[in-house]
Write a structure and sequence with these properties.
Largest sheet: 7 strands, mixed
Strand content: 25-35%
Number of strands: 15
Radius of gyration: 21 Å
Length: about 260
């Protein structure tokens, strides 16, 4: 059964040129573009997949944003980890319902909401208070206020240490993740998984050296490339553009 849009819902409006607009519905509100205006009240109560005409006659399709779509369109103060890496991080870290996770470098909350949605209980360490507030707002906007029961952010530096103990997982998006390796080893139980996202291969090299000296093993590094295909009639070929390198994903298990 299709659930109708309600006041406060997120809606993704897509125009005829496939441009996408993320809108939070509010009774009495309006969506404005160069292509005209659509009243939020017209969308509220309608089913997902409905189409609406603006005051200038342009047509917009209304759907609920997926997590990947929300991540790309949500308010941000820091560069987000892209969806092509968020999925593999869940698998590499083996996130499961109830997993106790330390995330350091929460940024705008893209990874946070991915972890919480997968059932993890996340404690975030973030240096910037404005980033922490934005991340919490984004998590609550997409997952609902109840999700904040599984998500807290502390204004602190993981390089100085980790207070949590018996953690299942540690996930890092930091410039110098190797400085957290020994802290993570003390904070996790044996068999726990650490995953780090790093843009540069020199960061990977330094991280791996530190991990092997801190009780970790089974260390692997991958990168994920995302190439779409153009398929239109008899024209079938790879797209001219692709999302290639964004960052390296390094995973390790705490063995001793």
């Amino acid at each position: 059964m299709t659930r109708a849009f309600a006041d406060g819902d997120q809606v993704l409006l897509i125009d005829s040129k496939k441009r996408r607009y993320l809108v939070t519905l509010a009774a009495g509100g309006e969506f404005h573009t160069h292509a005209g205006v659509i009243a939020h009240d017209d969308i509220i109560g309608a089913a997902e997949g409905s189409s609406f005409r603006s005051t200038h006659g342009s047509t917009f399709l209304a759907i609920r944003p997926t997590l990947a779509e929300f991540v790309l369109k949500m308010p941000r103060g820091a560069q987000v980890i892209y969806p092509k890496d968020l999925g593999p991080i869940l698998m590499l870290a083996d996130i499961f319902p109830g997993a106790r996770v330390l995330e350091s470098g929460v940024g705008s909350g893209a990874l946070s909401m991915t972890l919480v949605r997968a059932g993890a209980v996340v404690t975030g360490y973030e240096l910037r208070e404005d980033f922490a507030r934005r991340a919490q707002r984004n998590v609550a906007t997409f997952l609902g206020e109840d999700a904040l029961a599984s998500y807290q952010v502390e204004i602190r530096d993981a390089y100085d240490g980790i207070d949590e103990t018996d953690l299942d997982r540690v996930v890092l998006d930091l410039p110098e993740p190797w400085r957290v390796a020994k802290h993570a080893a003390r904070a996790m139980h044996r068999g726990g998984v650490l995953v780090a996202y790093t843009p540069q291969i020199t960061q990977v090299t330094q991280l791996r050296n530190e991990l092997l000296g801190s009780g970790f093993g089974m260390v692997d590094t991958i990168e994920v490339l995302n190439r779409a295909w153009h398929i239109e009639g008899q024209s079938v070929r790879p797209d001219h553009r692709m999302v290639a390198h964004t960052g390296f994903l390094t995973s390790a298990r705490l063995l001793s």
